[in-house]
Every structure is written in C-alpha cells, then in structure tokens.
Amino acid sequence: MTTNEAPGLSMLDRRRARSKWGVGLLIGLTTTAPLAVDMFLPSMPNMAEEFEAPTATVQLAVTLFLLAFAASQLVYGPVSDRFGRRPALIAGLVLFIAGGVLSLFAWSAEALILGRIVQGIGGGAGPAIGRAMVLDIFGRDRAAQILAYMAMATPLAPTLAPIVGGVLQDLFDWRAVFVTLIGIGVFLLVAYRATFPETNVRQDSRALDAVQMSRNYRALLTHRTFLAYALAMGLMFSGQLVFISGSSFVLIEELGLSPAQFGFGFGFVAMGLISGAFLSSRLVVRWADSRVVLFGAALAASGAAIMATLAWSGVASPWAVLLPMFCFAGGNGIVRPAAMAGALIPFERMAGLASALLGFCQMVFATLYNIGFSQLIELDQVSLASAIAAAAACNLTMLLLLRPSASSGR
C-alpha cells in the first residue's frame, strides 16, 4: 500500500470520503468558527439594545467564543487520537448546536455569552479534527493539495457570512442568525455521519495519558519543522488579523471609502487569499513544502514592505493599502496549506494533537499580536502597514533561520 492510500478503510469508504462531496464536507467542517463569528457581527448593536447591555459586554460574545474555540482544539485533538475522529467530532457538533439553541433563547446578555461559549467549545472540533482527517484519508502525498483546496474555499466564509447575517438581521432579527447556525450544525452532523467512516485507524490508547501527552507536546514543540510552520501560520495570520480588525477605520475614516466600497475592497483582498491558495495547490505537487512556504513568505513580505513604504512616503490612497495587501494575502494563501501539511505529515500517529496545537498556536499568537497592536499603537495608515510589514518580515526571517526540512518533497 502506498502512502497515498488510507489504510484500514474499505474501497467504498475510501472512494466516498475522497469524493468531491467528501472534500466539500471537510471544508464545511473547518468553516464553522468563521461562520459563527462573522454572521453574528451585524446583529451586535441590536442585541446590545434589546438586552440593554453595554457594547463591551456584547463584544464578549465574540472574544469569549474565540477563546473557547482556540482552547477546545487542544482537547479535541488528543481525544480524537485516542477514541477516534467520529465520537469527538459528533460531540463537538452537538455542542455547537446546543450553544446555538442557548443563544437563540437567551434572555439576557449573560445568557447569550454563555451560549456563545458553548458554541465556541463545539466549534473547535471541526477545524482540529477536519485537518487530521485529511491526512487520515488522503495520506502523505495528497494532503498538501487537499489542504490547499480547503484554503481556497475557507476565505469565502468570513467574506459572505457578514452579508448573510446583515440580510437576516434586516429581514427578521438577530435570532434568525442563530436559527441559521443551528441549521448548519444539524446539516453537518447528519452529512458527516452519512459520509465518513471512522478514519483514524491508528488510535493511540495512551494519547490521553498525562505522561504520554507531555511527551507528545514536547515532541511537537521541539521539532524544528513543526515549530517553524506553527510560527509561520501564527505570524501570517497576525498580519491578516491586524488588517481585518483595523482596515475599516483606516479605509473608511482616514482614506474616505464608503462602507460599500470598503466591502468590495475587503473582497478584493480575500480574492488574493483564494488566488494564493489556488497557486499553492499547483505548487505543492511540484515543490517541497519548505520551498512553497518560503516562496509565499517572500511574496507576502514584499507586498507588506511596499505597503509600509507607500504609507511612510505619505501616499494616502486606498489602493496604496489594497494592492499591496492583495500580495500579502496571496502569500498567506500560498503559505497556509503547505505549512499545515508540512507540520502534520511527520506526526501521522498523533495527527489530531498536531492539528489542534497548530490551530491553537495560530489563533493565540495572532490574537496577542493584535491586542498588543491595538493597545499600544494609535491606528492609522502608517501603523496598520507597519504592523503588517513587521509580521511578514519576522516570518521570513524566522523561516530563513530555522530552515524547516522538506518533509514531503515531490
């Protein structure tokens, strides 16, 4: 059996799991968190008004969701290594649905926040286990390509979700958002159970043993390639998150775009991410992961450097932000799937834990970077561009210093 096979799966199970429907379902599982966050955003002012709660209180429904989402991945990973992907993912989807129900019937801001925490805990299962399932199903040789396809589709969720949420808010009210999220959760649960068998055929009976877990964490965090790719994903997402959280203020308030124009500009940048992921899906079948990641990091650093140069030179134009950011996003799209594959492939026997730690490190690193930026630096075009350029430059320097190995040379 070649490394491109999924050992232990019947031919029918393997064919169904590898079908376009199966890949589409894996993409759906990894988009639960961005859907749950971004579809919710347009309704926040109405929720604050209805519950007579301060804006900062309602914002906790986003912040605590993201923290619960990040932390829960560290549980789902080793649990899925020990008991299998199916029970862990089904439990997560059930919690995601239950959190949606709690939020739907919330009678206060505090009850809403509780529902969102439960929803975040459940939402961590899809990304953490979905990435591990790619390695289970497609093996070492095709994992990077499938992850690149997933990275092409994933940016559509945060791009379209606020639009859908805004329409639901206008036509109905904020509860319609949670009805929709509950429906998505139920659909994914039913579709997953009907499509995928248990894909973890190398369950580790000691995966939850405290001593073994500490050894596994130590093996991951001392592995040069895993560490390099985890840092790469964290630094690239740091730059992206700075843009997501600050670009509306810079582009609308400072550079004069209308909200509608900003929406199109944001979509233009998202297309850079999708284009980069598409290119990555072509490159990973010809180049080693390390070469793909370095190429993407160089492209992102070049775009960010141009953005910072234009900002410091006093070029106050939306295109001085959007065009270089398109290049940065393209580099991010190239880096992400190749880095995920390169980090996971050496750890097939603990793919769940490796996937969870990768997602956790990316989310926490980027969140801390963004908090530090927002708290310490006054937001304007120059600071926005500088923060993105700093993340990109640190990433490229780190990769050149650590020089991750070519774990899946083609």
What is the strand content? Answer: under 5%
State the total count of DSSP E strands. 0
Query: What is the helix tally?
Result: 17
Mean pLDDT: 86
Give the C-alpha Rg. 21 Å
Reading the helices and strands in chain order gives HHHHHHHHHHHHHHHHH
The separation of the N and C termini measures: 18 Å
Helix percent band: over 70%
Low-confidence stretches: 1-5
Main sheet specs:
none
The chain-level structural class is mainly alpha
Global morphology: globular
Summary tags:
410 residues, mainly alpha, 17 helices, 0% strand, disordered N terminus
Describe the secondary structure blueprint for this structure.
Layout (H helix, E strand, L loop, with lengths): L10 H7 L2 H11 L1 H7 L5 H8 L3 H29 L1 H20 L4 H15 L1 H29 L2 H16 L2 H22 L14 H12 L2 H31 L4 H25 L5 H24 L5 H27 L6 H26 L4 H22 L8
Helix pairs in contact: 2-8, 2-10, 3-9, 4-5, 5-6, 5-7, 5-8, 5-16, 6-7, 6-8, 6-10, 8-13, 8-15, 8-16, 12-15, 12-16, 12-17, 13-15, 14-15, 14-17
